[in-house]
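ok so i was messing around last nite and threw this chain in just to see what happens. nothing serious, just curious
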Amino acid sequence: MSRRGWVGDAVAAANVAGARADLWLPGSLSALGYLAWLPLLVTVAGLPSESDLSFAGARLFSSGSFPLNVLLLASLAGLVVLVGCLVAALGEAVVLRATGAGTDRSLAHDTEVAFGVILIAALPALAALVAIGFGIAAVAPAEFAAPDTGAPAMLRVAMRLLPLLLLLVATVVVGQAFGAASVRRALSGSEVVGAALRGGLADVVRNPLRRLGIAAIGTLADMVAIVFALALLRILWAPIGFDLAAGRLVSPQALLLLTGFVAIWLALVLFWGALRAWTATWWSLELAAPPAAPEEET
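result:
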């Protein structure tokens, strides 16, 4: 238990992250490797409709190249995950080195170590995502072909896959706690990666409430950031999308709106970077704290 206490470490980490603007940019890299790109993608590309999903699924499974097309999509998704983990590892390594939690070796070494730990910590969540993908492939055709019951087909699919969705949330939270504890052990220079992974898992088992609590709060903060960014970007994109549909994207007004949209998205990513710097500093303070001294007998 830390001397300041759990909440005290959170406040101290917020003070550090607020005063250290140099942590925001590497924190933004970590956020981009995580989910900071999602609000921009959803806003600009838009969410597919149920008819689009039905058509895409039918073409995917009825294609003459099936199942090679599915394997290609899975390979591309795996490549995206690897790139995301690498970008997140680079940002995490820079933040930890800037706060004194990294090694005295090169940044490339710390990034390589962080990449390996983050990838291993993400494996349970990736397995849950794969299970959700198989679940969607199994139940979506029947739900899309079912008579209209008033509820959207995607909502009915989500309700049928609710246990897998809850499993995904649990694996994300546990993976965050396990990864945070392991990467700091690995970058301390005193343990090899294998020992750091075992030590990180043992640390989470010994202190489940504190470690999973920080992970849950960090994950919730990320979800709030996603919702806030998505809501703001959709409002800002509405007039730009209207000009784009009307073929007026090259007009001065549309270009000004587009420039402001990009600038605000970058500002949101920087804010998200400050948020990631706060959680990274909180983890470092929590894990570096000495154990509580035993109470003396009276």
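not much to say yet. The mean pLDDT is 84.
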